[in-house]
Batch of 4 targets.
Target 1
Amino acid sequence: MKLFYFPNACSLGIHVLLEEIGKPFELVKVDFTSGAQYKEAYVSLNPKSKVPALALDDGTLVTEWPAIAWYLAKTNPEAHLLPASIEGEVRVLELLDYMIATLHMRGFTRIFRPGAFTPTNSDEPAVQRTGRETAEAGFKLLAQTLGAKAYLLGDFSIADAALFFLTYWAAYRADMTLPQPLAAHLERMRARPAVQRALASEELA
Ligand SMILES: N[C@@H](CCC(=O)N[C@@H](CS)C(=O)NCC(=O)O)C(=O)O
């Protein structure tokens, strides 16, 4: 299995899950700094020009964060990355959709790449403000969901890996102050050996 990634992109969350599973995998860096995601070598593999992308051993590719995480959880049941009940699975899907579609795509992508949302340079600060408001409102809701629990669903699940890359971005890329339960979740995640291995291998602090 090969994970196409870029350091500190949302692929970090999938990298964490692969480390949690603990089976061998290969990391392939898509060098965003040289625009490699738009060059033929990568586009011919993944026409979406995004990471994460997971190449399976049969040569097929899985894209989209929730689909990759779901695939890894279902094919590695011994890693216990999903709750056992259908109700628990539904809550994970609900959280993943909110975290990826809203906090990542409508929040952080606006903060990091405002130019993708407006052709007018002078509008970019307003785009970033909207992104920040979206992310902050999302974190407020997620803090309520987490409450005093250690992990979003009680036990660790793929949802926590998504929350991890978002809170990591908030703290280390966007200079945001996280609600206390989420700051504690970030530290709890950072204490997990799998997270430490993923951060070290992406040369992140
Ligand atoms: N909907 C995709 C979004 C993935 C995404 O936006 N990835 C970013 C990195 S965090 C990316 O590859 N950006 C490259 C680009 O847009 O040029 C998913 O859930 O996997």
Target 2
Amino acid sequence: MLTEQDLPWLAEPLATWRDGQRGHALILHGGMGSGLFELSLRLAQAWLCEQPPGPCDHCPSCHLAQAHTHPDLKVVLPEAWAQKLQWGGEDGDGEVADSEGKSKKKASRDIRVEAVRQAIDWAHSSSGRGRGKVLVFFPADAMNTVSANALLKTLEEPGQGMRIILAVEDPEHLLPTLRSRCQRLRLVPPSAPQALDWLERQGVKDGAALLQAAGGEPLAAQELAQEGVTGAQWASLPQQLLQADARWLSTWPVPRALRALQQLCHDLMASATGATPRYFPADSLPPVTDWRALADWSRELARVQRHADHPWQGPLLIEALLTQGRLAIHPPAGRRGYT
Ligand SMILES: [Zn+2]
């Protein structure tokens, strides 16, 4: 598990929140690619540490937390995230492969209702090691309405010494009834120089371009590099849109390719309204000639995104989306200039 030694920008919020929180229910929000999960776990470990101020990483409690076997720490996450984060336990039984390696079951991106009910039962049982208990939901917006409602009473009347962390990118994705019962703390991503310095020490090439592609989140930039994306490839994406050339993009998993198209659409809109693009170099973006087509494209991308776990025909889908996006910057004859 990554710690604040690995991700130095987590040290300050960890120390502040460890000592300063009197509330028992917290919403931690910020970028997954800035270490939201890691910070949630370190905060939980710090509260349970037997040699405060923790986490000391040496006491029996810290060892149990690091081995994912602490009786007073429960982490509830969807199967898909459990796999990605290599988090074991009863909720991490996601995709099952048979002896030939074929996938039988797609890992769920939702937190199961049963998992939430089990967590609530656990929350109201007694503490094992006497330093209280911590329950973490990640990402908390993976709970459906039924699950979120089941949790309300526990948030209002937690057991003795109980703390609950709802970790989420955007708190607005949570039910208002959950939000109103929690104190909010925001994880601020590291400054660009700090993030670039960190990426360089991880051996990531094209750090600046990939950091921009990742919206300033260093772990996400590192992941792009590990997937083989280069700065030059990223910067060429607007050109690929102009030519509706899906060869490179269609080699990506569909959700990743969709996200890239949404980022490109976002930046085309920003640039068309005179705002600063967030993910692409400003000079790489072609002018928008058909604003309405761009808005249609944005809606279509959002619609497809909601169903991104469907077994789409990946390359065909991406090609169709590229062709639609191209219309906004390169409309057919007769529609040019139409707004
Ligand atoms: Zn400790």
Target 3
Amino acid sequence: MPKPRTCEMCGARKLKRRSTTYPLILPGQQINVGRVQVDECAECGHLMPTPAGQDKLQRCLHVFSGMLDIPRKS
Ligand SMILES: [Zn+2]
């Protein structure tokens, strides 16, 4: 069941849901994934992807890690 989310950084409960460009950090490089759904902390600005946003990041990660031939845990 859904529980109220709090900021991972500062613990604030004021989170704004929006779509933004989210940087995906890979070994040796960074990929900016567009229009990822995130909860943004109103206090400190920390971005936390929502479950839908995480799904999108995971898909992008699979595509890019395949292209870059990064070893994956099996
Ligand atoms: Zn915060």
Target 4
Amino acid sequence: MRAERTHKKSITLTVNGHRHELSLGERPHEVSPSHTLAHTLRETLNLTGTKVGCDRGSCGSCTVIMDGRAILSCMTLTVECDGKSVKTIEGLGDPKTGRLDPLQQAFIDHSAFQCGFCTPGMIMAAKALLEDTPSPGEPEVKQALSGHYCRCISHYHVLRAVLDAAGKTRGE
Ligand code: FES
Ligand code: FES
């Protein structure tokens, strides 16, 4: 498997429904073996909605959804993502109408952010939870967001926003 990868010249990555063929190498706009997915999203694909806080797997701000699971993009090497499908905060709204995802709207409605640095990661983690568990209780939401740090606000605003979005998604 490893030998096969080293001979590859490119990998494919689908991000927010767009398929990208990314050349492997050390030149600008190429993917080096040491590049994290967070780096590739921000620096190569210019998707800067994904934030990098600690860059060592401790804060949750770099969270994206890969093949349906919330993952830390700072702890994921891009070369390991060949053929995967990734969703970032830029892919949540409706591209046709520009309408925000109900989760994004709920964060606004509940003032669930201040500086907003941690917010994309929290929203993506919550989105993965709601896709898997459409009617989560408080314990599930707290568990899903347990690795996410915010310097600005009470996490209870976030909790209310996610539970509210879950209710709207269910049509309550
Ligand atoms: S930047 Fe990835 S967990 Fe902090
Ligand atoms: S809103 Fe500022 S770090 Fe969370």
